[in-house]
Fold this sequence. Notes:
Arc Repressor Mutant, subunit A, 3 strands, three-stranded antiparallel beta sheet, mainly alpha, single chain
Amino acid sequence: MDPLISRFIGVIELLLRVRARSRGELKRRLPAGASVGDLYVLDVILAADLIAMGDLARRLGITPATATAAANRLVRNGWVVRVPDQDDRRVIRLAVTPHGRRMHEGYEVHREQLATSVLSRLSRDEATTLVNLLERIAVDRHA
């Protein structure tokens, strides 16, 4: 195997372990019944401000049934509320509650601390190059 490929695989595996440890730390801070995935769903809802279930499913790349299950957990935890659409009574939208915003803020602090601890080891130019390269890889793989 090409040594560069081998190093790349090793680095990716290390990053996945760091991510798993970080998710474990975050999971311990969550209330019973909540998951780190719920925080990601909350992130998508917050970005949209008010989102229909079908749009949530599309943005997450999941089925409407899975989006509904996620929404049910968030509602049960008091992180979001269901809001009837004013124009179409068949459509239910989700909005983040003040409690959900507080949970998300804690999540953001955790993510920022992790990113800062990683990027602080690099110069500003190195960090910029790293982020640019990772974006390029992620966009190319996601497309």
